[in-house]
Write the structure tokens for this entry.
Amino acid sequence: MHIPENYLSPQTCAVMTGAVAPAWGISIYKVSKELPKEKIAMMGVAASFSFLGMMFNVPLPGGTTGHAVGGTLIALLLGPYAACISVSVALLLQALLFGDGGILAFGANCFNMAFVLPFVGYAVAHLISPSIGQGKATRRDLTAAAIGSYVGINAAALCAAIEFGIQPLLFHDAAGNALYCPYGLSVSIPAMMIGHLTIFGLAEMVFTTAIYSFVSSTSPALMARQPETKTSLPLKIFLGAMILATPLGLLAEGTAWGEWGAEEIASTGAGYTPSGLANGWSLNAMLPDYSIAGMPDSIAYILSAVIGAALLIIIFKLISLAVGKASASAA
Amino acid sequence: MTEQIMKGIARLLDSDTASSAQKTQLHPVLRLLGVFACILFCALSRNSIFVIGVIAVSLVRIAMLPPRRMAGVLRPVLVPVLLTCLVLLPSVFMGHPRTMLTVALKVFASASTLALLNESVPWKDITGAFAALRMPDIFILTLDMTVRSIVLLGRLCRSMGEAVSLRSFKGPDTARDGRSLVRRERDRTRRDAAGGLLGTVFIRSGMLAERTSEAMTCRCFDGTYRLYKKHKWNIWDAAYVLVLMVLAAAFFYTQSLII
């Protein structure tokens, strides 16, 4: 679901960034006012789960792949505003360090995965179980988490599909060739939704319910409505185990729909490489596609997971320190 | 930037008394050797694989620290990294951005390893480790005194600078030919104050050295570093030796990889 560089026109990217900016502003305000500063540090752990979840690629017949996002999970644990910030920071890290998702398309990716996904997922889950997040997870809570995450990821996928699909309608040359994403709505919506309504939606459900159930029973510190503030040992071990298991994501071969490189898009059925893709701007990431030149893929994948998860925890711990200092000086 | 460097050095001594300094079960000599080996391997590394591995381990260790100590470790690390990026910025404009990245990564790896050593091992244990490694006493004494003097004189400079600024009178800026008479007078006062400040620090440094020498004589310290407490080797030391061997193996393995 990560929209790469040059698949969306700069105009679309600007509109999407403008659309998500108020959500960022309100989320920052709400989190700094309502979430205790100790819990802000927990956003890093939650963001790490989301980051790691996105590294587990799931294959789909036909050669495409997808992954869970974990936005609903963070929303259920720490609230939708915290989820918006956590997933946004995780996406920024992925774009800058690992080249996963475009820099220009960062606003669009955040709109889909950091705004639509957690807010829709949270709303649906709360509609089914209003008491979710208040103590140990019940069967009803888990059902609500599963359905919420499923609806959330599909809503986000639909938004991404529409963003892809409107490109050839709005931006094309005199010969009718698309300048950016070459596939219209008639292709992009079924291509994105079939995977997310089936396998990827299921992956998101399993990811959300499994971790939500584990966290609610072993580490209530990660839940906004619980008073605990220290991460439990089982949660740390679980995070470590997830990092070590990330190479499983390499078993899925192929590229996710809409995430092809400029050199392979012509062979996917488009028949040509759109000029915006061929001549567009791109960033040379430090660890492109979670790989390191010359190193076995599995080791590079684990190292990428370690660096990503550690950086997210560091960033949110430093934010919690800054918020604590600011509130102390204000008092 | 100078303030950050001063704070970094001050943390060396603060770790002697701060309750935040963890009591480590590892032999300080091993820790010191491990850090030296790590910095040496990072410097010798011909590709970024080993350096990225070291950075990953450092980041995990930093991520496990409480926020306040984490900030204390990161501040002195980021200063040299930013300075490196600034110095090597022309390489980006000349079409070699990788050069800046490689050097900055090496600096980050080395500085973070050193900052983590400082965070986890008290300064007195580090000087003790130097003594255990049979380093010349004059070298340890000079290092010890230099670090302590920098910190003490730095704190003196800061408190005197604050006193001078508190006593400075900021007059109104009435424009007349670009600079007012009041401002000119204020600049002259500041120049005098800075000169006086440096002179005072010079005199105080001489007094400090004299008092240190007297204190050494009173305590029968002739500049020889002796180890009074023997460290008993334990299972953690054995595990750390194993880690050092893995570090060396990882270095030689990564150097054999073709990029």
In short: Chain A touches chain B through 22 residues (CB under 8 Å).
